[in-house]
Structure formats: structure tokens, C-alpha cells
Amino acid sequence: MRVLQINTVCGVGSTGRIATDIHQILLEQGHESYIAYGRGEALNCSHAIKIGSKVDNYAHVMTTRIFDRHGFGSKKATKGFIRKVEALDPDIIHLHNIHGYFINIEILFNYLKRANKPVVWTLHDCWSFTGHCSHFDYIGCERWKSGCYNCPEKKEYPTSFLFDSSDLNYYKKKEIFTGVENLTIITPSIWLANLVKKSFLKDYYIKVINNGIDLSIFKPVENDFRKRFNLQNTFMILGAASVWTVRKGFEYFFELSKALGKDEKIVLIGVTEEQKKDLPLNIIGITHTNNIQELAEIYSSADVLVNPTLEDNFPTTNLESLACGTPVITFNTGGCVESIDSKTGIVVKEKDIKELLNQLLKVKSKEVVFQVKDLVEKTQIHYEKKANYLKYIDLYISKSNIF
Prior knowledge:
Layout: E1 2-7, H1 13-28, E2 32-37, E3 48-50, H2 54-67, H3 75-88, E4 92-95, H4 105-115, E5 119-122, H5 166-177, E6 183-187, H6 190-196, E7 205-208, H7 225-228, E8 235-240, H8 250-259, E9 264-271, H9 273-277, E10 283-287, H10 292-301, E11 304-307, H11 316-323, E12 328-331, E13 345-348, H12 353-364, H13 372-382, H14 385-399
Parallel strand pairs: 1-2, 1-4, 2-3, 4-5, 5-6, 6-7, 8-9, 8-11, 9-10, 11-12, 12-13
């Protein structure tokens, strides 16, 4: 079986690592595997196909920034890529993120409809069924259900500084993305699956496959992190994100910091150097790292992970924390709560900072106690990456007629 995956990046970031994890499993089972990508350099993939160049990326960015036509640039790059796909002749095409300034969705889907090959499309956010944004739930927008216009997220990713083309984009996406004969949509969370069922993609078969993590890395590990940061006798509250924004709940850590005692500190992973400068003394900022061993050490050091995101699909930060034996407190938003139960963490009403603080105090005082065994066991049963991504291989085989 010959499989082609398409994603913005290859081997980096959450979606890039999912693609390369699936790639490795395919190779182990004797299949042919290729990953096409559009940004950065490819890691951990022996058969990577670059789509376009930096110039193509920049031109697509400008098309987005000025005209709000994200996904409609990169025409020449996409035509060249489609010629490579036709020569490769894959048995299965697996789409991940097809936004990210690197591919023309109309040219791509015209090919998919013409080629009539089995297609799997993993949605990692909501961009596919809106006229502009990748996230809308946290601001209460429901335009996506019937037709976008006057987008309140115009200046959020994928940012447009001038025109608002959300109405045109919505109807073009609806026309482009519907009507593929053999397409299955995968979502990592039940929450996102339920949104898709209300969108113009509702007629496709929709299946939930949770994201997985590497349990050989993410596990309770001995380390000297607390000693290095002088946190030996401190209640350590951890926050982790690839990028800290309003949607990710960055401001709530500032609110928490005002109520903390002398023996309580926050550690934030993923802050920028600029954000780091503005942190209060009881928040330690650590810039983004791709060193997953270091991440596992920090998770293992924390007393609790706080995830105050206002909207997320199925955050791997929750899974990584649990696997390292650290409980999670999260807002009742998006797919965040799907990995949390009474044995692994606490769910707090969205934006309720007082209740969040109250639950933190209960964890600190051991009024609420979590067992490391229960936390680790949850991830072993449900979120081991190879077990979860083997479900994709089974899906490929069921959709392919070559066996």
C-alpha cells in the first residue's frame, strides 16, 4: 500500500509529529509512505516531498494579509505538486492541515475529485468549515453554521489586515470541500466531531481517533528541575502551550499570580522572550522547546498542570502531563475535558478564576488527592501513540481496494 500524507509541516509541531509517527508505522509494516509538506524543513521522514518554495509561501501570506484569501494562493506550486502526485499514484491520500500558506485548496480538491482515490482528512481545528478562522467557539460565533460574514476573527490566524472575504471563502470552501466520493473525516475529539456534524461537511463519514503520545518519553522521571529553579519547597503550578494567546488563557495566569502565597509559583512553558519580560516575580517563564525529554522532566516536577484554554481540540499537554504523573485542572471548554475524569483531574467552569484557585488549594492541601498510578494508567490505556495511530492503518486498509 502506498500512502501520501499532506500537512503544513513534517516532523515538527503536533501535526507534523503525528504525520511522521504514522509514517514510521507504515514503514514498519512494509508499506510505502510519503509526506508532502509546505513549510520549514522535514524531520524524521525518509520520503518527504516539498510543496513550493519560500517565495511561494510569502506570496500566499500576502494574498491572505491583503485579500483574506487564505488557501487560494500557491497556484503554480500546487499544480507542480499535483503532477508529482499523479506520478507517485498513491493508494491512499491522507490530508492533515491544508492551511498554512502552502497549497491551493481548489486545485488540490479538483484533483481529488478527478482521481477518485480514497481520502482521509484529519481535522486538527475548525478552519475547513469556516470562512476565515480556525477557532470560533471561544468568542461565541455561530456564523459558520449558515454562512460567514464580517468575521470577528479577521485579525487572528490566518490574519487579514485589509479585506474581509469570509463570505466568499465560506461558499467557495463549501463548493470545494463537498462532493468527494470516498472521503472520511477524522477528528481527535468528540467535541470537534460534533461541530463537523453541524457544518457543511456533515454528509461525510466522521470518526474520532484520539491523538497519542510517546509513553517511552512522557512518564514520571527523576530530574533536578526544581533544584535548578529553586523550587524545592514550592507548590509548582505548570502551564504549557506552543504559543500563549488570549485563546490559550494566558491572562488567567496573571490573575492566579496575584492570589498565590509565598510558597506557590507558576512555571509557564512556551512564552516568548517579549512575554517573559512582563511576567511577575512568581511566574517563571520558559521559552518554547522541541526537547521532549526536557518537557517530560518539567511535567514530572509539577504538582499540577493548569490548562485555562478557552478553546482547544484535544490538547496533548493534558495527555503529556497525565503520563508524567501530574494531574490536570482545566476549564470546561472544547475537547479539553475528554481526557479528564475524577481520577485524573478537575474540570472548572469556563473563566471561573475563583473556583480555579479554590481547586488549586484543595490539591495543595491534599483535600483532593490523585494517584500517579491512575494518571499513568489512563494514558497507557487510551493515549499510547502507536496503538492510536494503528487505527489509521486499519482505516487505510478498509478504504483501499488493493487487498
